[in-house]
Design a protein that fits this description.
The chain is mostly helical. It has helices at 3-25, 32-59, 64-84, 86-91, 93-113, 123-131, 137-167, 170-179, 181-199, 208-221.
């Protein structure tokens, strides 16, 4: 990823996090900040839902034209439902953000956890093999443990999110789920990298950037 793209992604994340936190801290359900935040949530969520449905139809062997028509009709239907329920949705923006946060972290937990069962290779092991073709058994065990750690990290995010939402103010929950979300993920990367350097001192280690690049390169090949 180029420096310009990286800066644009960082800028978008900062704007999104700031706007989300402000929107949840404002108690007037019809403030412009809440409406913009609502669109920032619903547009990508609706897009993912349509993409998922069309992808499923493709796997079932449905033709391209039929998939396109279904996708368009589904998008129109979702837009209509949002328009009809706009006032109600604005009033419960907190629940929509909670749903998004729980769903995202649950999917990420599944992404890591499901590779730990059956004959699958743990996802961190698979990524490590794209950098180091030959790995000793100790490194393979370590990469499995890291995969478990990431799964537990996202489970913890879900549990804490629900507890804070239930027992603290919405401002406190937003601070955790919106403002601290990315710093916690970055901290997890840093802690794992420090552990890796300490536990496997004699093994040539990839940097965090190399690990991320290896994951995306592996995803393209899959």
């Amino acid at each position: 990823m180029s420096s310009l793209k990286t800066l644009l992604v960082i800028a978008f994340i900062i704007i999104y996090v700031t706007l989300s936190h402000v929107a949840l801290s404002v108690h007037d359900a019809h403030r412009i900040w809440r409406q913009i935040a609502m669109l920032m949530l619903l547009v990508p969520m609706s897009s993912i839902a349509c993409w998922g449905a069309v992808t499923l139809l493709k796997q079932l062997g449905v033709g391209k034209i039929a998939r396109l028509v279904f996708g368009v009709l589904m998008a129109i239907s979702l837009a209509y439902v949002v328009l009809i329920c706009w006032s109600v949705l604005l009033a419960r923006l907190d629940l929509i953000y909670l749903t998004e946060h729980i769903a995202a972290n649950s999917m990420l937990c599944w992404f890591f956890a499901h590779t730990l069962f059956g004959d699958r290779a743990p996802i961190i092991t698979t990524v490590a093999r794209t950098i180091h073709a030959d790995m000793p058994a100790s490194i393979e065990r370590y990469t499995r443990q890291v995969t478990i750690a990431w799964a537990l990290f996202f489970v913890t995010q879900v549990v804490l999110s629900l507890l804070i939402f239930a027992f603290a103010s919405i401002e406190t929950w937003s601070l955790f789920a919106n403002v601290l979300n990315w710093p916690l993920v970055i901290l997890m990367f840093v802690v794992e990298y420090a552990c890796r350097k300490r536990v496997n001192r004699d093994f040539p280690h990839a940097t965090i950037k190399q690990s991320i690049d290896a994951y995306f390169n592996n995803s393209r090949k899959a």
